[in-house]
Amino acid sequence: MDSTTCLAIAKEQGFIPYALSFDYGQRNNYELESAKKLVNAFQVLDHKVIQIDLRAFGGSALTDTIDVPKDTEFESNKIPITYVPARNTIFLSFALAWAETLNAYDIFIGVNALDYSGYPDCRPEYIKSFQNMANLATKTGVENELQLTIHTPLINLTKAEIILKGIALGIDYSLTHSCYDPSEKGQPCGHCDSCQLRLNGFLETGYKDPLKYQD
Predict the structure, then answer these.
(1) Which domains, from first to last, does the chain contain?
(2) What number of other Cβ atoms are within 10 A of residue 96's Cβ?
(3) How far apart are CA 155 and CA 105, in angstroms?
(4) Going by C-beta distance under 8 Å and a sequence separation of 6 or more, which residues neighbour residue 193?
(5) What's the per-residue H, E or C state across the chain?
(6) Whole-number Å distance between alpha carbons of 74 and 89
(7) pTM for this structure?
(8) CA-based end-to-end distance of the chain
(9) What's the pLDDT tens digit per position in 39-69?
């Protein structure tokens, strides 16, 4: 949902989007199936799906044989087991490499530092640090006057504000997928952290989530 809203904002701002998705050994591929529908809906110029097997390292409920927590209370001082080690660093590194080959100076990522599950790689200070590194470590950053920019248009928005922004931009949220532990048919569980954040966001807006949940 966040990535889709981020894509819509980039298009609204006049950018020509190239979309990057990752098959990284996560528990299911329903997000990737949604991504394919969404890039068609948004007429993305090119969409690449990168395969990386983070199951080789595990350490997360999304890439290991660890149960996905359900109906948990968010603890601000504790990083949940659904955190995938260094995931956004890996994703941004691939995006940075592709951006260089495209002569692109702008990378968008749908991270959020308010209504999120406590992941350290969703914080503004992390994004700022990665952007500094990107301009030091690339030919693009060293040889050109223009600087690479990591755009995070959702970073200071609540989940409800993200949804309202997306609705205003005409997003069909029935095409999106958020659940960490869906059924075999792809129905979201309604109880994992990601589902809870999504449902609470829709509740605050007064709009109904168009997805059909298991319960």
Answers:
(1) 2-205 (3.40.50.620)
(2) 21
(3) 19
(4) 69, 72, 74, 80, 82, 117, 180
(5) CHHHHHHHHHHHCCCCCEEEEEECCCCCCHHHHHHHHHHHHCCCCEEEEEECCHHHCCCCCCCCCCCCCCCCCCCCCCCCCCCCCCHHHHHHHHHHHHHHHHCCCEEECCCCCCCCCCCHHHCHHHHHHHHHHHHHHCHHHHHCCCCCEEECCCCCCCHHHHHHHHHHCCCCHHHCCCCCCCCCCCCCCCCCHHHHHHHHHHHHHCCCCCCCCCC
(6) 23
(7) 0.93
(8) 20
(9) 999 999 999 999 999 999 999 999 999 999 9
Q: How far apart are CA 157 and CA 134, in angstroms?
A: 25
Quote the tokens at residue 8: 């819509």
